[in-house]
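Lab notebook, bench 4. The sequencing result for the construct came back, and we need a structural model before the next group meeting so we can plan mutations. Quick request posted to the team channel:

Model the 3D structure of this chain.
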Amino acid sequence: MHCACGRGLAAFQNVDNSCTKVLIIGGGITGLTLAIALRRHGFQTDLVEIRSDLRQQAGVGLSLQGNAIAALARIGQDAACVRRGVPAQHINLRTPDGTLIAQHPVLPMGGPAFPSTLGISRQDLHDILLANATASGARLRLGATIDSFISGTDGVEVRYPDETQQCYDLLVAADGVHSKSRAVLFPDAQPAHCGQAVWRAAVARPPQVETTELHIGGEHGVVGICPISATDAYVYIVESASPLTRYDDDQIRAVMIDKLSGYGGALLRECAGRLTQSTSISFRHLEWLLLDEPWFKGRALVIGDAAHCNPPVLAQGAAMGIEDSVVLADELAAAATIEQALRQFVQRRLPRASLVVRNSVKLCQWEVDHSVGAQEVGRLMLESQQFLAQPF
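Done. Here's the predicted structure in token form:
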């Protein structure tokens, strides 16, 4: 297939990489990270995002492990994230009644220069990335989408809803696990249900919460409290759930409060009481996806959750998308051709993404069917962290 752009590789192979035009679809963590990374290498970068306000995030907060912070350092954004978030070197493990079992160290997967783990609000992380993507010179089109695209061997022709057309050397889809772009390129690739769901709610941060407080072994699976700023935290419940389980919006608050009421710890009781003031409570089924290589067709590539998505047990969802973005920009800057860059990118990323997806799904399944003990769970988590501590 040939793109009507008809430009060939000449522009890409020019010594001045700023001549190369890249279109990113999706303005989430992965897409914004990629925009910054590409601009640092001098690529002309457009980003299209269907939401008109990226500050309005569906999620509450997240834990970034050391490898994600190290990847953010590659684009100069680590220090800002650490300032806005809550860094830690360990997590607290507790029984359902709140008794402290252990202060469990987190392997420093990014090396000694970075925190082992960092709680941060999704809005703060997006604010940091959005400001820097804009300042970098990336052209952001918010509240916009594309109508269709044709990917060929020499470029991608993109048609917008107003019937205008534009040609790019490369299209990168970072539009999430339910990616419409992936549905065009790889229509047989569909996410699968993990057998679990997660409840999340923003709460005022209890002053004694300085790191993630993980309550294990209770009625509803794993319950945690993660501090994400000086004033805020989020509480979450990961539990077994049928994919058919649904709740009306007006039920969610009461149901989550009821679930937390079965836990006797002072921290969880305090958080349950603060749910009455929470402005952000969600219930979401967990899914997984691992796209077979090569992740691209012609000049269109999928990355992040659009290519590999996993339950959050290893806290690596955002990390994998951030790493994808940094590695892709590096490969595009170093390779002689786009084809070579894309193949080398997939070769570098597939082993890490595969391990995270497969081990996350395995841990999730163990939680659902209670088939193994804590020692085996700990072994697999440590093996995963040791692998991810290696250079990416």
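The two ends are 33 Å apart (CA to CA).
Will bring this to the meeting.
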